[in-house]
Specification:
The structure holds 2 protein chains of 2 kinds. By secondary structure, chain A is of the alpha/beta class. Helices cover 41% and strands 18% of the residues of chain A. The longest helix of chain A has 13 residues. Chain A is globular, with a radius of gyration of 14 Å. In chain B, helix 1 packs across helix 3 and helix 2 packs across helix 3. The model of chain B has no long low-confidence stretch (mean pLDDT 91). The chains are: A alpha/beta, B alpha+beta.
């Protein structure tokens, strides 16, 4: 059994989909997760791509920005949750005011991490969501 | 807007800038001076602009020199850049997007009536760029960092203090 957070008990890596309109954030998340054994299976630049990539790749975890062009992260996460209520999505955003949080909770989204985040915070948040039972 | 309201908007931008620059780039920053201008400001080299809508209409201009922008991008990405390229610009946009998002969140949570929302950021860079907002009052805060100065400019339409 591996000690790495990104590796399952059967030795397979957890697969992560990153959805964010900033390539810098793609890079920061990749740099935080890959050393822990996670595999980045795909990256999307907006919510529309996020929904499409989710259905193509069926990742174990999604990191989703909120403010994005074409389709925002809350809409995308809501669509993904409708297609798979067990989807594990963590919302990452610098905008975390009460109105946005309340909209997200209404959509059934409960996992948030505020930007900027430290690598350990991201890994801890993902570990927590992986332990959740639905 | 009265001076109390201005402080309640300006201070979160100062603290968010200091915290985010420290967290993302591991560069310490401290406030050095505050200035007030009308209408136009000159870019130091690389500037990100975001529009502000809500109780007051305005714009946020976060501005730095080319060497400072490159130094911040190097710290954040963990790689060297010889000149301004797409990655440096994306990094500066994201840094300023996070600063503005954090500041606006704090302002909105403390004062429900403001209901500020940000427009997507744009970035420009070059020499002798003048940013004009005719008739707007602009409040400028300079932060001194280990890699050069970082300027916060908040401009508001129809506001006089």
């Amino acid at each position: 059994m591996s000690d790495m957070v990104g590796v399952k008990n059967d030795g397979q890596a957890y697969r992560v989909l990153i959805v964010d309109d900033s390539p810098v954030i793609h890079k920061i998340i990749r740099r935080a997760l890959e050393p822990q054994g996670f595999v980045i299976c795909a990256t999307g630049n907006n919510g529309k791509e996020g929904v499409e990539l989710y259905s193509q790749h069926r990742p174990d975890i999604v990191t989703m920005d909120i403010t994005m062009p074409i389709k925002d992260g809350l809409q995308a996460a809501t669509e993904i949750m409708k297609s798979n209520p067990d989807a594990k999505i963590i919302m990452l955003s610098s905008m975390g005011d009460n109105t946005i949080l309340s909209e997200a909770k209404q959509a059934g989204i409960r996992n948030f991490l505020t930007k900027p985040f430290k690598n350990e915070q991201l890994i801890e948040a993902i570990s927590d969501i992986l332990k959740e039972k639905r | 807007m009265d001076s109390q309201e201005l402080i309640s908007i300006l201070n979160p931008f100062i603290s968010a800038s200091i915290e985010v620059i420290q967290d993302m780039a591991e560069v310490s920053a401290k406030r050095s001076k505050i200035d007030k201008k009308f209408g136009s400001v000159y870019s130091s080299g690389v500037s990100t602009v975001l529009g502000l809508n809500g109780k007051y209409k305005g714009r946020i201009l976060l501005d730095t020199t080319v060497p400072t922008a490159i130094a911040l991008a190097e710290k954040i990405n963990g790689e060297e850049f010889k000149e301004i390229d797409e990655t440096v610009l994306y990094t500066i946009i994201e840094l300023n997007n996070i600063i503005s998002g954090k500041a606006i969140t704090e302002i909105n949570n403390a004062n429900k009536e403001y209901e500020f929302r940000l427009t997507p950021p744009g970035v420009f860079w070059g020499e002798e760029i003048k940013v004009s907002s005719p008739g707007w009052q602009v409040f400028c805060v300079e932060l001194a960092t280990d890699v050069g100065s970082f300027n916060i400019n908040l401009g508001f339409e129809g506001v006089e203090i």
